[in-house]
Amino acid sequence: MRARSYKVRAVGTACALVVALAIAGCGSSSSSSSAPGVTATSITFGTHQPLTGPAAPGYSEIAAASQAYFDYLNAQGGINGRTIHLVIKNDEYNPTQTVSVVHQLVLQENVFGIFEGLGTPTHTKVVGFLNSSKVPDMFVASGCACWDDGTTQPYTFGWQPNYTIEGKILGQYIKQHLAGKKIGVFYQDDDFGTGGLAGIKDEVPASQIVSTQPYQPGGTNVAPQISAIKAAGAEVLIDFTVPIYTALGQLTSFTLGYKPQLVVSNVGIDPTTVGGLLKTFSKGKAGTELIEGAITDGYLPSSTETSNPWIALFKKIHAQYDSGAPFDGNVEYGMANAYTLAQSLQLAGKNLTREDLVNAVNEKGSQLKGPGLVPFRYSKTVHGGYSGVEMGQVRNGQIVLFGGPLVTEPTAGSPITPYTAAQPAPPSSGVSVP
Amino acid sequence: MSAPADMGAHSGADSASSFARLARGTMARSLGLVLLGGVVLFLASEALDSYNDLQLASGAYYFVALAGLTVLTGLSGQISLGHGALMAVGAYTVALLVGNEQWALVPALAAAVVVSSLVGIAVGAAASRLRGPYLAGATLAFAIGLPALAEEYPGTFGGANGLVIEPPTPPSWLGASFPLERWEAWIAGAGALVVVFLMSNLAHSGVGRSFRAVRDDEIAASLCGLHVGRVQTLAFVVSAACAGLGGGLLAVVLQLAAPGAFELGLSLALLTAIVLGGLGSLLGAIWGAAVLVLLPGWTNDLAHSFSLSTKVSANLPLAIYGFVLIVGILIWPTGIQGALRRIMGLVRRSPQGGSRELDKHSTSGSGGAST
Q1: Interface test with chain A among B310, B311, B337, B342, by most A beta carbons within 10 Å
Q2: With 70 as the cut, is the pLDDT of residue A34 above it?
Q3: CB-based contacts of A132, cutoff 8 Å, min separation 6
Q4: B261-298: per-residue pLDDT in tens?
Q5: How confident is the model at residue B132 (pLDDT cuts 50, 70, 90)?
Q6: Nearest C-alpha of chain A: how many angstroms from B293?
Q7: Would the CB atoms of B293 and A95 count as touching at under 8 Å?
Q8: Is the pLDDT confidence value at B354 over 50?
Q9: B350 in contact with A at a CB cutoff of 8 Å?
Q10: Does B32 touch chain A (CB under 8 A)?
Q11: A325 CB contacts (<8 Å, ≥6 apart)?
Q12: Higher local confidence (pLDDT), A20 or A311
């Protein structure tokens, strides 16, 4: 009796394990092409995005807008005869989820590369995996300096201006126009915030900065940080924050009766997003007026500047393919970044390997022109994106850029210089490359 | 703590010899089980592609944590909503030791077990004084509070950004092209096998019987000479050690320890997984681990198979997940394992056995764990 039930158990256990593994084995697929994710008629990229979670407001629109731009291109025949597809995975801005979905994209979905992976705390966790797997990691949606290392991370490329570049140009403005005022900095406690802070410190005398207060993404109470900045007597408040923390910070300032001159990184100020959050959090009692007059910057034309031909084009595509979302800076971001990817694919040529795409950006990326106001910095060793920003201000709930584009390098002490070359008009169809 | 008395009705020399036979039988069976599991895991890891090897590794570290929790809840009758936090303890221990101190993997995992056991002693001692909803509440507070420490001390624990560790390198004799994911599956699988061996033995030992005795009737157990509080604390420590090992393996597989991995949702998911898998059974823990690994992917695919707006489809997976859990529990109140046992009719054919169930008998029956 004992022996038999033992055998039955053993067989049962084995069966259970086999069934469990068989289930685990379902859904595995393999690509027959030598370069994964690319066929004669299509190419597939994957991306990780905060569709839910603390960074979702605003940012969740970005990948859908990129998708819309690809749809528009695909309707015209795609790039080099290939339609571009984007597999969007939700990582909730949670680094652990990012690791999991990016492995899934690369190992299970067999994407050609990762495109526009969003976030500093998130994407830093997969850069090692992507580079050791030799998977192109194109145009990370974050301005962290961590992407700017073509030597040790040859497959990773940044896109938007490095936060230190942005911090330096904001810092120069403060030095010139808000001289001697006491400054408080409210920043995200990772490479995003510390990179921006480093740029500010590069330009502004240390004695002028009276309080620096970090926050951890995820919490909702920022009263301790804002109170500390207020108590330190800061007359200028600099935010290196994602939109939800810009909104929380401004609501808290409002409650505390604290009205400093606000300065916000371009990633945290999109008025549609922040205004919407303010409205939601205050149950309709507050809106964009809480960020009115805020100093910021931009490296793309303002999304409300409808006379700009790029904005006109993006609005047209948006109306056709992505009308569910409001047309704002996030949508513009997604489309502009998608345009850069399409250009890079065009450059990489018809016979496409993963290395070809990387080499194309290494060699010709710095000559790419498009919706950006400033040139790219790409080279074999430099993988950072745009080289500067133009100063801007929130006026009547819209970002108005002024003063002309400025460019610089992230290294301390490198000069900030004006950039004067004109922005090219968008091509009538497809993409244009040098 | 002294070995609790054999709950069986044997006496004198007869008891001594039957106990020896019993121990041999249990030990041999556990070893057989581990060998069988090892072969299956090995063959599976060879057959699967990289992504599914990674899924296998995830399943293995979840199983390790679930095996401990199913011992705690199924055998000793205590509930814990705090096991996600205990996994965090293990994960951060490994990340700190491997990342900062350059420890080798095995000692770091052992340290994760030790540290989480120490935390388990503290929590378990408090837990043994609490019952039912109060115990759930206390462990719930632990689950919420502990991961927040990582954000409170970003200098040590890296804040929300977390701590990154280098991926484990497969030994060179496996060849240069040996996939990292398979190596991770082996590491996590080895951890799971160690836990199968220990838990399966524990459940059939005097200690396991003392757990059940305390669960079934605390007064009767103390009349038998058991120190109820100590037994409950021990059960908590055992499950904390498993959770710590599971968390440590998680950190190795993901190469990351970040608070986002150990939110309250994880603790709740662990509890639902052991209930859905089949409470008090190691096989149930396997089913539970499979649910944790596979269900989120399926719900995602399902949510995206409808053409819905991003806002809806991004939130739908969680709703489907909840729905499946509720329906699952309604249809199979005894979990997947219980349902399978019924389907296979093994219960009817062999009322005393037929499954790898830890909780085979209540102690009020005769003979204790005789099989």
Answers
A1: B310
A2: no
A3: B167
A4: 898 889 989 998 999 998 888 999 999 999 999 988 88
A5: confident
A6: 9
A7: no
A8: no
A9: yes
A10: yes
A11: A61, A64, A65, A318, A331
A12: A311
The whole-number pLDDT of residue B66 equals 96
pLDDT for the residue numbered B7: 36
Q: Which CATH number fits domain A164-298: 3.40.50.1970, 3.40.50.2300, 3.40.50.720, 1.10.10.10?
A: 3.40.50.2300
Lowest mean pLDDT among A90-94, B232-236, B359-363: B359-363
- pLDDT (mean) for A150-156: 94
Judged by DSSP in three states, A185 sits in strand
Query: Among residues A105, A101, A98, A111, which one has the least CA distance to residue A55?
Result: A98
For residues A77 and A66, give the distance between their C-alpha atoms in angstroms, rounded to a whole number.
17
Q: Does the A42-161+303-386 domain belong in CATH 2.120.10.80?
A: no
A104 contacts in B (CB within 8 Å)? 51, 297
Q: Does B156 touch chain A (CB under 8 A)?
A: no
For residue B268, give how far its alpha carbon lies from the nearest alpha carbon of chain A (Å): 17
Percent of chain B exceeding pLDDT 90 equals 46
- Split at pLDDT 50, 70, 90, the class of A22 is very low
Beta-strand runs (E) in chain B:
163-164, 256-257
Sorted by where each begins, the domain ranges of chain B are: 18-264
- Of B270, B290, B267, whose CA–CA distance to B340 is shortest? B290
Query: CA-CA distance, B155 to B146, in Å (whole number)?
Result: 16
Residue ranges, comma separated, of all CATH 3.40.50.2300 domains in chain A are 42-161+303-386, 164-298
Q: What is chain A's percent helix, strand, coil content, to nearest 5?
A: 45, 20, 40
Distance (Å) from the C-alpha of residue B310 to the closest C-alpha of chain A? 8
Q: Does the distance separating the beta carbons of A9 and B287 come in below 8 Å?
A: no
Residues paired with residue A263 on neighbouring β-strands, in sequence order: A238, A295
Q: Do A52 and B54 touch (CB under 8 A)?
A: no
The Cα A109–Cα A129 span in angstroms is 16
ipTM exceeds 0.85: no
Name the minimum distance, in Å, from the CA of A404 to any CA of chain B: 35
